[in-house]
Amino acid sequence: MARARSKFRKIFWLSALLVVLVAVVAAGMYVLYLDRLVVKQFEGRRWTLPAQVYAAPLELYVGLPLTVSDLEHELQRLQYRRVDRLEHPGTYHLQGMRIDIALRPARFADETRPASILSVGASDRGIEALRDSDGKDVAIARLEPLLIGSIFPIHGEDRIVVTPQDVPPMLPAALTTVEDRKFYTHHGVDPTAIMRALWENVRAGQIEQGGSTLTQQLVKSYFLDPRRTLTRKIREAIMAVSLDSHFSKADLMNAYINEIFLGQDGDRAIHGFGLASQFYFGKPLSELDLHEIALLVAVVRGPSYYDPRRHPDRVRQRRDLILKLMAERGIVKPDEALAAARKPLGVTTRASGAYYPAYLDFVRRTLRRDYHDQDLTEAGLRIYTSLEPRAQDNAERALERELARLDKAKKYPNDHLEGAVVVTSPQSGDVIAIVGSRNVGYDGFNRALDARRAMGSLVKPFIYLTAIETGRYNAATVVQDAPVAIRLANGTVWKPENFTRQTYGPIPVVHALAESLNLATVGVGMDVGLPKITETLGRFGLERPPAQVPAMLLGAIDVTPLEVAQLYNGLANGGFRTPLRAVRAVISADGKPLKAFPLEVHQVAAPEAVYQVDRMMEEVMEKGTGRAAHAVLPPNIVVAGKSGTSSDYHDDWFAGFSGSHLAVVWVGYDRNLSTGLTGSSGALPVWSRLMASLGTTSWDAPMPESLVETWIDYWTGQRVEKGCSADAVPIVVPVGTELPVKPGCSSNPVQSIVERAGEWMRDLMH
Amino acid sequence: MRFIAPLAALAVATSLLSACSIFREPEAPARPPPPTRAPVPAPPSAAQPQPGGTPPTAQPVVPEPPQRAPQKQFKLSPATAALVSQARTQARSGNYEPAAGTLERALRIEPENPLLWIELGQVRLSEGNAGQADSMGRKALAQATGDPQAQASAWRLIADSLRALNRNQEAAEADRKAGSLSPR
């Protein structure tokens, strides 16, 4: 019996031992598994960097028409701070007509520039002197490019990764003070803090205080799991201890600073203090002052509850509490804390934040042709674009303001007018601004890229260009604006009408284009032939050939605003097609150029033919459907353009250019309703307001030597002397072109009475 | 009854005047006859002389002396000159892509300056992109109106590009044009 009992006892103890062993091994393996998991995550995260997207840097040089206040505005856009004496990079000193700038270190697509001092002297006309810190003349210098966003993964985590050198020392100090006092001494978990938290929670009757160390918070952020269970807490604790044993406190602190969730912006989750600093203050983390650092630390506890934009009072209270704690712990002097607590939050409004979703959308689409999503969201690429923040802001404002005005007289109570704008620099093909909606900050349907609408009369310049290319037409050629009836392939008869439902009889080409006469254009188009016109559109960059029906001549061609910009860019660029581009260069995380999108030009039309059309488009602005623009534009500026209205007023377009800018504006309803507006009344006001705000230069292309300028009568096409009457318009024709001369309209100002009576009658008739 | 007389007078005048306006040219012995209207599609054009003789009043439009673009000479501003010299240094050491990038910076400042287009075309030619070099030359040419020196340089770039494309006959023609504008 004793033997049996002892045997039983032995078996009992052995199996117990076995169970314990198995449990220990299992627990060990689980710990090992968690260890591997968290280490892998930690290592992996170091390299998961969304691509950062930059605007075009502002180039400064003598002669640039930028006033002192313009420059100051640009510096403020980059969150440079005005100071009495230059301190650290990111500050400037303004004295009279001179601005001294402590430039930040910057990485451009082609070079890295250290922090430096630049002195700019300017007058009302523009920049007159540029000097470095030794007083030596500088030929050209640039401000750093504005960060306009990043390409983050589908799950929405966006971040700007900072290195320890970028982190102001006050930040780790504040974090440990508030969140984890024993961070530098504990082993990943802090039992006393947990006990304290437990006690607080028991006292409060609910979970209020975390007691988590920074390391535990880091782990929690790695494995997003909202459940607050005990097992998860244990898991987190094991992982925190594991991380603590593998990595230095400095590494962990840096990871925390880059990882932690600090705000939500639509689909975009703001992670890390680097991005949070840009998101809330619009400037780099390294430049934050004490009160700003304290604010970000306040947000850590609950980015939604302590949202500085939505709950400024609540977050201010916590910020000041943190400042007080920092003073108590001797991290800052009490008077510094007091001074900081007196400062306003200093958070930028959303509107001034540089977030341009429609433009970023175009950038993303450009890059998806060459890169996998993962390269863009994880590889830390730096993407340099052509976006000009000033032009972009102006385009957004022009669309918002004019649509708000037009909506006051709206026809549909439940529909808001929508719009899109594309702005380019014609000669470089740079797309400098894109607005995809009147809700400019909303990352939704991008009308500039995706709204395919009938181009209407925007097609007309290409019809007349094709006509001029045949050698049978010029601006003075008299064409018939008379009723047209064309039998279509399906047996029906197409009878287009003029906008006014009138006919204008024999009329010179320049008049037909300027007044956008449909019947005259259809006559010319049918004479020239649809295939030739299609071919012209193709040369200028239209990718899908339009249906070969006569209605094509009145713009029954569905295009996006961006496609219109490509087509008109060729007109603005003297017959050279330049592929429009938003991205200039892609640079790898370690600074190697990966891909350039170089400037390309392709001659697609003779400069002579395009010049003749462009000069007629100048008359659109002088006498025709675009003439209202001059009331808004700076005096004496020369621009060329064309209005477009699709049938039944569904789409209002205006496309036009100056010497330095091309802008395309579309206005319409998403549901494709009639707007009751025309290109001239709907889109032109947006275009004019935008162009007036760009500081643009006159269109001033050199006239090809084989052409000659002359004046004709706007109604008869007969040659007249300049100033002969108000109806004299300048045109250009090939040298030697024979034009009928208007009798009696010589330099002699005395006209016969009968002639003047005839003109009077004609005015009555039109 | 009282306003019938003025009305009749107006009607007569109207018909008279509108008759004039139909022809757009009243009969006047001292003046040449009215121009004939060419119906679409037969516009008047210098390239294609009108059948049946030119209308008596038609005159060829030729430039008057002051209308010719005056001779000019394109120059680089200090800013673009600095960029061009930087680009040349880059190109000399075979860094064509950075050189082109630097020239694009210059072109954003002075897009109308043909010298910069020629410079960029030369970089393209050096890196073996003769097609773009030719296009840049033509772009420069279109901008160089009035500056024979710049026009000649543009033609030389075009000639070199065409030679690289084995279009030797066109290249010789381009060279000839360059020579006639500005002897090397």
Task: List strands and helices in order, with pairings.
The complex is a heterodimer of chains A (766) and B (184).
Chain A: H1 2-46, E1 51-54, E2 59-61, H2 68-77, E3 81-82, E4 91-95, E5 98-103, E6 106-107, E7 112-113, E8 116-122, E9 127-132, E10 140-142, E11 147-151, E12 157-159, H3 170-179, H4 191-204, H5 214-222, H6 230-246, H7 249-259, E13 261-265, E14 268-271, H8 272-281, H9 290-300, H10 312-328, H11 334-342, H12 357-368, H13 373-378, E15 382-385, H14 389-407, E16 418-425, E17 430-435, H15 447-450, E18 453-454, H16 460-469, E19 478-481, E20 486-487, E21 493-494, E22 505-508, H17 509-514, H18 518-528, H19 530-539, E23 558-559, H20 561-572, E24 576-577, E25 583-587, E26 593-596, E27 602-603, H21 607-622, E28 640-645, E29 651-657, E30 662-668, H22 679-693, E31 707-713, E32 719-720, E33 728-734, E34 738-739, H23 753-765
Parallel strand pairs in A: 1-15, 3-4, 12-14
Antiparallel strand pairs in A: 1-11, 2-10, 4-5, 5-8, 6-7, 8-9, 13-14, 15-25, 16-17, 16-30, 18-23, 19-22, 20-21, 24-27, 25-26, 28-29, 29-30, 31-32, 31-33
Helix pairs in contact in A: 1-6, 3-9, 3-10, 5-6, 5-7, 9-10, 10-11, 14-22, 16-18, 16-19, 16-21
Chain B: H1 4-23, E1 59-60, H2 78-92, H3 96-109, H4 114-126, H5 130-143, H6 148-164, H7 168-181
Helix pairs in contact in B: 2-3, 3-4, 4-5, 4-6, 5-6, 6-7
Could you walk me through the main structural features you see in this protein, from its secondary elements to its overall organization?
The complex is a heterodimer of chains A (766) and B (184). Chain A is α+β, with helices and mostly antiparallel strands. Chain A has 23 helices and 34 strands. In chain A, β8 and β9 form a beta hairpin. In chain A, α3 packs parallel to α9 (290-300) and α5 crosses α7. In chain A, 50% of the residues are buried. With 184 residues, chain B is an all-alpha fold. Chain B has helices spanning 4-23, 78-92, 96-109, 114-126, 130-143, 148-164, 168-181, and one strand at 59-60. Mean pLDDT of chain B is 76; it is low at 6-56. In chain B, α4 (114-126) packs antiparallel against α5 (130-143) and α4 (114-126) packs parallel to α6. Chain B has seven helices and one strand, in the order αβαααααα. At the A-B interface, β19, α18, β27, β31 and β34 of A face α1, β1, α2, α3 and α5 of B.
